[in-house]
Amino acid sequence: MAEQPGVGLDGRPRPSEDVVIALPEAVILLDGATSTRPDLPSGGAYATELATQLAGRLTAAPELDLAALLAGAIRSVARGNGFTPGESPASTVAVVRWDESQVEALVLADSPVVAFTPDPDLVADDRLRTVPRGSYRDRLRGGGGFSESHVAAVRASARKTSALRNQEGGYWVAEAVPGAAYHAIRKSWPIDTVKSILMASDGVSCGIDDYKLFTWEKVLEIAKNEGPDAVLDAVRAAEESDPDGTRWPRPKAHDDQALVLITF
């Protein structure tokens, strides 16, 4: 595993909001959404609590369906904190679980899983990419930079995006709607066909999807030969070469990064 914090919307360093928990026969990776509302807990705090709840359920009842376990964890966190739909922090979820016969993956929002069987088999939830993102990307392309005006534009975009959260025609994410778990993207494979698995937050997968730095096969090669940190460093170096976001418009100069390599 490798993790590296990014920066906040204001460009200042702050703790990572990605969370990774490794269990004996499962790995959980969550990416807490950066909050644009000071009246709500941070996405990182929500992701930490949700990951802990989910890990407990996976440990206590490993035979239960992954979506049911996730739904129970979402429900527990929402009730415990008084969160209601639209008035809650949010997080992506990626879970990989295995037993003596199969490997399972569940992905909710943009934290993909790639199984090498031996060819790469991508499990990705692209629904968030289809919703309107606002004008902040055009501002960056025009040279506006990561300024206070950019922060305002990102917040306006987040308000539009949040209106489409956890509903048909929008996108699904862990928040305060337990049923969102049943809209996750799922896949499973016989365990004897799986060589390796990669799990990533979007602070890493952007290197493949947006920056086109490498393929998933290349990420696997680097992670195995140089370690997962080398992948994170390559993505961060690309972002540092584009300090104003003109080449690769993005909400923050640097996002949090998490990458997990599992080998069988």
CATH superfamily name?
A: PPM-type phosphatase domain
Give unreliable regions as ranges: none
Find the structural class using helix and strand composition. Answer: alpha+beta
Number of helices: 7
Name of the CATH first level: Alpha Beta
The number of E-state strands comes to: 10
Shape: globular
Helix content: 25-40%
Per the CATH scheme, the topology name is Phosphatase 2c, domain 1
Average pLDDT for all residues: 95
**SSE pattern:** EEEHHEEEEHHEEHHHE
Structure, described:
This protein has 264 residues and is of the alpha+beta class. It has one domain: 4-Layer Sandwich (Phosphatase 2c, domain 1), CATH 3.60.40.10. The chain contains 7 helices and 10 strands. The chain has a 5-stranded antiparallel beta sheet with strand order 1-10-9-6-7. A 5-stranded antiparallel beta sheet has the order 2-3-4-5-8, with helices on one face. Helix 1 packs across helix 2 (66-81) and helix 6 crosses helix 7 (228-240). It starts with a strand and ends with a strand.
Output the keywords:
five-stranded antiparallel β-sheet; globular; 22% strand; single chain; 33% helix; Phosphatase 2c, domain 1; 264 residues; alpha+beta
Map the helices and strands:
Elements: E1 2-4, E2 18-23, E3 26-32, H1 43-60, H2 66-81, E4 91-98, E5 102-108, E6 113-116, E7 120-123, H3 136-141, H4 148-162, E8 185-190, E9 196-200, H5 202-209, H6 216-225, H7 228-240, E10 257-263
Antiparallel strand pairs: 1-10, 2-3, 3-4, 4-5, 5-8, 6-7, 6-9, 9-10
Helix pairs in contact: 1-2, 5-7, 6-7
